[in-house]
Amino acid sequence: MTNTTPVSQHSAQIETTPTEKVALGWTHTARFLTTASELVHLQANELPEIAFVGRSNAGKSTAINTLAQQKRLAFASKTPGRTQHINLFELGPKDAADAWFADLPGYGYAAVARSAKLRWQKVMADYLEVRRSLSGVVLMVDSRLGMTDLDKQLLEFVTPRVSTGEIKLLVLLTKSDKLNRKDADAALFGTRAFLAENASAESDITVMLFSALKKQGVGKAAQILHAWVHPVPKTAAAEIADGAGQADGAA
């Protein structure tokens, strides 16, 4: 069984390979661009757009901040589920941005009024189904809970585009430091098995363990996102996928 004793935020360092270091340097450039409460208010974008989605309390804002190595880039409300805007961040050189991150509202929090839940379900469904610049989705799933019904419902909106290869999918099993080795392996196997049911030969889907607290999977996740925007040769892409598998196995 692995040690699941919490550690100080300052005691955990991101161990990186040279390629991961480059990717983390890129994610570190993320900066706030704009916010919108309706899809029609989002400006058109010709750059690759990567959306971050997940249940409230799944660690979405923390994951974004950890990937960007910034404490308050993505706002984490003290009342989960209250943040009801799509927040956009741009990445790359300030005078030549090369990608956007889109932070979508968390979903599934019980204290939010049903009308607000339905409204945001419609906004996110439309965004995932029709946003032309969307090229990748990062789904945060609490590793202790696995894929919930709400996570599966959200995936239904984007599955057609993932199946054709139009959109890439990265599933981060967050808070993996809370699991022992057996449970972590079970979380990986169960999530991969579920996603395989609707995958095709064109699908680009990665599932990996992630811990913002212990910095597990941070460098590898950044490397995957960087490769989405800056395509690498097939041999290098295979090394990235292999590295993600090795990181999972070491959890």
From TrEMBL:
Sequence ranges assigned to domain EngB-type G in this UniProt record: 46-231
Domain of life, per lineage: Bacteria
UniProt cofactor(s): Mg(2+)
Pfam families: MMR_HSR1 (PF01926)
Keyword terms, alphabetized: Cell cycle, Cell division, GTP-binding, Magnesium, Metal-binding, Nucleotide-binding, Septation
HAMAP family: GTPase_EngB
PANTHER family referenced in this protein's UniProt entry, alphabetically: ENGB-TYPE G DOMAIN-CONTAINING PROTEIN (PTHR11649:SF13), MSS1/TRME-RELATED GTP-BINDING PROTEIN (PTHR11649)
Summary of the function given for this chain in its UniProt record: Necessary for normal cell division and for the maintenance of normal septation.
Family to which the UniProt record says this protein belongs: Belongs to the TRAFAC class TrmE-Era-EngA-EngB-Septin-like GTPase superfamily. EngB GTPase family.
Name the UniProt record assigns to this protein: Probable GTP-binding protein EngB
